[in-house]
Amino acid sequence: xxxxxxxxxxxxxxxxxxxxxxxxxxxxxxxxxxxxxxxxxxxxxxxxxxxxxxxxxxxxxxxxxxxxxxxxxxxxxxxxxxxxxxxxxxxxxxxxxxxxxxxxxxxxxxxxxxxxxxxxxxxxxxxxxxxxxxxxxxxxxxxxxxxxxxxxxxxxxxxxxxxxxxxxxxxxxxxxxxxxxxxxxxxxxxxxxxxxxxxxxxxxxxxxxxxxxxxxxxxxxxxxxxxxxxxxxxxxxxxxxxxxxxxxxxxxxxxxxxxxxxxxxxxxxxxxxxxxxxxxxxxxxxxxxx
Amino acid sequence: xxxxxxxxxxxxxxxxxxxxxxxxxxxxxxxxxxxxxxxxxxxxxxxxxxxxxxxxxxxxxxxxxxxxxxxxxxxxxxxxxxxxxxxxxxxxxxxxxxxxxxxxxxxxxxxxxxxxxxxxxxxxxxxxxxxxxxxxxxxxxxxxxxxxxxxxxxxxxxxxxxxxxxxxxxxxxxxxxxxxxxxxxxxxxxxxxxxxxxxxxxxxxxxxxxxxxxxxxxxxxxxxxxxxxxxxxxxxxxxxxxxxxxxxxxxxxxxxxxxxxxxxxxxxxxxxxxxxxxxxxxxxxxxxxxxxxxxxxxxxxxxxxxxxxxxxxxxxxxxxxxxxxxxxxxxxxxxxxxxxxxxxxxxxxxxxxxxxxxxxxxxxxxxxxxxxxxxxxxxxxxxxxxxxxxxxxxxxxxxxxxxxxxxxxxxxxxxxxxxxxxxxxxxxxxxxxxxxxxxxxxxxxxxxxxxxxxxxxxxxxxxxxxxxxxxxxxxxxxxxxxxxxxxxxxxxxxxxxxxxxxxxxxxxxxxxxxxxxxxxxxxxxxxxxxxxxxxxxxxxxxxxxxxxxxxxxxxxxxxxxxxxxxxxxxxxxxxxxxxxxxxxxxxxxxxxxxxxxxxxxxxxxxxxxxxxxx
Lengths: 290, 614
Ligand SMILES: Cc1cc2nc3c(=O)[nH]c(=O)nc-3n(C[C@H](O)[C@H](O)[C@H](O)COP(=O)(O)O)c2cc1C
Ligand code: SF4
Ligand code: SF4
Ligand code: SF4
Ligand code: FES
Ligand code: FES
What we know:
Chain B: One of its GO terms (molecular function) is 4 iron, 4 sulfur cluster binding. Chain A is of the alpha+beta class.
């Protein structure tokens, strides 16, 4: 494969927590923080997607700005002075975590518990009557499950399904404000929608709201155990494109399939065969019509 | 993109409504009759027409009252829009329904100015007669007729949709729901009933000192001849003499500052847009006016529509735009009709179109109707709404002057800001700037509402104090308790702070804001906690839902206020403050950033909840 030559990008110097950091022009504050070895929490940010900067858990303080800035999307500008651990930034992160964890089931969101602890967030402070997005999981096909009681409305699935990757536009945000949810048209079952079961939405979902049916069922049965799983990356054999598949195996069964995001061609995206074809191999008979 | 549809078909009526807007379908793929050609060329709709999505949704909603799945699919076929996206847009707007409902829906204002003047009773009366809210009636945020609070608006779908505006609404008698007969139609506002309020809305009408309101209630708003006879189009002629750069210089020197709430210098915005190489440039007039307590833009548009047409033409000329969009809130049927009429008349008379006044300048105006979403007044949300997307704000940078509507350089201005350009050009920058104070030049429109003797729209030179204005409006009806300045996104001041100068700098120094010019007066008959609750409810309802601090924060704010109205608790006050700070600091746009302002000022300045807090 040939890599197109691009002129080297100019470097921009900014200050992060008092330390000078140089990053290529066009990089974000988050990139600069990573370069400086800072660990900023992120939820709606996706390494393969255009930042939507919706969750605001990554906010940092930029000197001279009236409001805090989302690190994941704000570009580093020469001379910027960024504070990642200021009282204001930490306060907003704490409250954002409280707001999310009090309204959404974050039990399967990686690192959520760690951050809640780190920022001293107390999601219970809003009392037992605090409104939540709790609702029954949508199980309308054999391949993956949509449990929107775990959805933080990060828009990543919508972007992956729409113009950023899949171009299927099967799902979008419907409603407004706290009542907004991810939905097909008229909340039709997925089997009636434009979904092609590429599972690219599942790939990017940061909370486990979207999960393989295998994972959903095993969690329900109490048999899901990530510690016992192995991951093996291979090349998909269904067609000639040669996508990378990472097979997650527990007790000799493939329980889910992901794809490396750093693959320069596919960026973690697959089609139904690579993503869900293992089910045909494993459980003859259980098939999905879609 | 591969569009997939379910089997729902539109009814003949739905199809006719869409076709009336978009023309007859050309191919079977768009839902027309299939021909052999269609099988050979699997053509998607030829041009990008996504921006017709909201007008098409309106067309069906106006005709039938709601949007069925068949209608939505048909619109999608015609425009090449995925159904999930169209559904996502349709469910964003509160005036559109994707559930069946009767053709006539009564929108009862339960917002601030109306609440101060008996909206609760109106609501109870309506409920007693029409049953629970949801289908035939619904509670509404501010309808922009606060000077005649309590207010309501009935929208009737049909081939000729109609609207009835109710001021001083009283539904205690069932006959008040009766139809108003179409014979009472007035020619330039077809289909809009209810008392014509515009003169009554301006207690100063006819006063020779008025500048922005000088024609309102005095000159026939339908007549272009009367407009020209009273000085109309002198400013545009002057603009052509000065040239685009000269106009911008005048606006800069006049010190004009935006009246939409953000108080940004207009000349600088114009200059920055004019300078952009990327073409075309667009002008957007922000007439979404949905800040509770605000009705100034409505009065200007209903009472002097040609002034806005002329002002937009001047703005387009100065900033290099050939097209201006007038984005007007869906709850303003009369202003919409008046402007449709004014634009058509101006076009017919060569004052819009290819060669305006023979000067070789081409400019035209397109009206776009909002559909019930306060957030669409935010200057980037308005772009998404016009383009056919959900009215969610975009992140800035990039700023509108670089990448705005359709990704092009765009200047967004409020109605009142734009009409100020006329006196600037008529009198010259120096004379204009001689009125007012150093930081706030010219005159200002104030929307006075609430428990006050003479509510209405007032115009005063900058520098007048709150006390001056209230005196003009006859004072509070009872003992003055507080004034909400700037609307729901503004701040309260106490009844003893009447010497605050009503200028940008004066209100800022007092820790308040002019905002959109709301002066909502509360006397001692108004209970503050329920009033605060209504503010919180407004923000919760109107949050677009994009960012967490606002989407969830506004819910938590409302919940805490609910608890506080029942039982004072220090913990809930801390909670409000902490959530409020995060909303202010970490929200994407001004809605979330200001959602706690008024509540904060009520606690800190008025001492609400202070007494018994433990
Ligand atoms: C939530 C929100 C709602 C707004 N609504 C309006 C509105 O209805 N009308 C308006 O002119 N400006 C509104 N604004 C302000 C606009 O974003 C923008 O500043 C203004 O239209 C610019 O025009 P101006 O410079 O002439 O004031 C709103 C801002 C926010 C954050
Ligand atoms: S599986 Fe693929 S097509 Fe289906 S909703 Fe997810 S991203 Fe869209
Ligand atoms: S389902 Fe997952 S990816 Fe989609 S918005 Fe919710 S949390 Fe984000
Ligand atoms: S602050 Fe509120 S209205 Fe603004 S983008 Fe965020 S959720 Fe939407
Ligand atoms: S990760 Fe930056 S806003 Fe969500
Ligand atoms: S019309 Fe009711 S508050 Fe404005």
